[in-house]
Design brief:
single chain; alpha/beta; two-stranded antiparallel ribbon; 9 helices; about 35% helix; globular; binds adenosine-5'-diphosphate; hydrolase; ATP-binding; 4 iron, 4 sulfur cluster binding; metal-binding
Length: about 290
């Protein structure tokens, strides 16, 4: 079996691939990726979610999930990702499988300084040589802006999402934009949107993060970075939805806002509600899940 066929076999076990994008760094893209994965798990008790961090120069998932210093090991069938059970209920819970270059670095303060081809090879390995198994969703946390990693992802995924045989079922591919409400951040979102359109990447819409601050005393929402900038941006894009001008058209749905929340930062730091399970335990969970499904 050639490398592409092997990669396609891996992908055929995944139902949906979602790329989480942002124009700028620090707007909460990784936090939203983590929250999305955990929300999908808590909404569906048998969900199987993969979370892949392809930010090769600034991986943050290991820190956010409290997994710094953990190793991934190699098996005959590829790298075994780190498994989490979001609710700690053994035997019935879904599984979150995480992979990041952070797990491969000896020291969390190290960073990789690679040229495009090396990044490209790493991303192909993350998709094709990680033992993802069956997944309902693979959420991919990308670096900010449009970098080598984005190009590699699309160049790797696109040709593989065309079935090589009549019986192969392949995942859907879509994207999600994260921004803060400030004008500067939204300017960068415009550029990201142009990338999405030029590459014909299906877009679910935009989440406005850090949209106001929940006052711990009165629970009122205070607009620190402003509020509603993302919604206005989406309204304007939706008005030009049918435009045929290059780089315009297609719209951008507003999906909702997440306020600045001190508790969220504390949870991301402490990850109190997440439990690490061993691959063996996770394999037993998967068998139990499949039995529940049947
Ligand atoms: P990015 O992935 O876009 O670089 P991160 O997800 O790493 O951004 O978030 C940057 C920082 O902001 C992190 O310390 C994170 O905990 C914090 N953060 C993100 N979203 C929120 C929020 N809604 N409320 C409070 N802090 C947040």
């Amino acid at each position: 079996m050639d490398a592409d066929a092997r990669l396609q076999r891996r992908l055929s076990q995944i139902s949906h691939i979602l790329l989480v994008l942002s124009g700028k760094g620090g707007v909460g893209k990784s936090s939203i990726s983590v929250q999305l994965a955990l929300s999908l798990l808590s909404a569906n008790p048998t969900a199987r979610i993969g979370l892949l961090d392809v930010d090769l120069t600034g991986p943050s998932l290991p820190r956010m999930l409290g997994l710094e210093g953990r190793d991934v090991h190699q098996s005959d069938d590829g790298w075994v990702p780190v498994y989490l059970d979001a609710r700690g209920k053994e035997g019935k819970g879904g599984v979150l499988k995480c992979m990041s270059i952070g797990f491969l670095l000896a020291n969390s303060r190290e960073s990789v300084v690679w040229r495009g081809p090396k990044k490209n090879a790493m991303i192909r390995q993350f998709l094709g040589e990680v033992r993802w198994g069956e997944l309902d969703y693979l959420i991919i946390d990308t670096p900010p802006g449009t970098s080598d990693e984005h190009i590699s992802l699309l160049e790797t995924l696109r040709p593989l999402l065309i079935p090589r045989g009549p019986s192969i079922k392949l995942p859907t591919l879509s994207s999600l934009l994260v921004s803060t409400p400030q004008a500067l951040a939204l300017l960068d979102v415009s550029k990201e949107l142009t990338f999405v359109r030029r590459t014909q990447l299906p877009l679910l819409g935009l989440i406005e993060n850090m949209s106001g601050y929940v006052c711990p005393h009165c629970s009122d929402i205070v607009g620190i970075f402003g509020q509603g900038g993302g919604e206005d941006f989406c309204r304007r894009e939706e008005e030009r939805k049918d435009s045929k001008v290059e780089g315009e058209g297609g719209g951008c749905r507003f999906l909702g806002r997440v306020p600045i929340d001190r508790e969220l930062v504390a949870l991301l730091d402490d990850v109190a509600d997440v439990k690490v399970v061993s691959p063996e335990e996770a394999a037993r969970l998967e068998v139990a899940q499949n039995q529940l499904r049947e």
